[in-house]
Write a structure and sequence with these properties.
The two termini are 14 Å apart. The chain contains 4 helices and no strands. Helix 1 runs antiparallel to helix 2, helix 1 runs parallel beside helix 3 and helix 3 packs antiparallel against helix 4. Helices cover 73% and strands 0% of the residues. Keywords: Membrane, Transmembrane, Transmembrane helix. InterPro entries: DUF6328 (IPR046291).
Amino acid sequence: MTAQGSIDAPEGGSAGRGGRNETMDERADRRWTELIQEIRVAQTGVQILFGFLLTVVFTPTFEELADTDKAIYIVTVVLGAATTGALIGPVAFHRIVSGRRIKEHAVVWASRLTFAGLVLLLLTLVSALFLVLRVATHDGFVPWLVAGIVAWYLVCWFLLPMWARVRYTTGD
């Protein structure tokens, strides 16, 4: 597998500092197992959030929402559906290509789908938070509060891992 210059880049070969001595198949199996464990964490939260979002439209309060809030709700549901698709995509991908001896490629594509799912999850959470806080408070500070949460998500999900990647890895 070649370095992709992205989230798919290899962690280093068997040479160098603490590299693993594994075959390409072993590496693909390990990376697949790790990826599936990561997806399970995200999928659970997404499924709960999406299920909740689907019920909101059937509540009596929904009809009382302003058109803007209804539009935000629709965007949130669509984002939730897209997130669900991206995070379940790797499972379908694996099932369709299983036994075709292309696991290392499946891992790369599954990783890309998972990353897209995380970005969509970020957007879904932000949209849902924005809607809930707008309905709950109707205050002008809501966009600022949501912006602070977005910044926190970006730090936790992307900036800190990218900093660690640059800080603790070499150009192997």
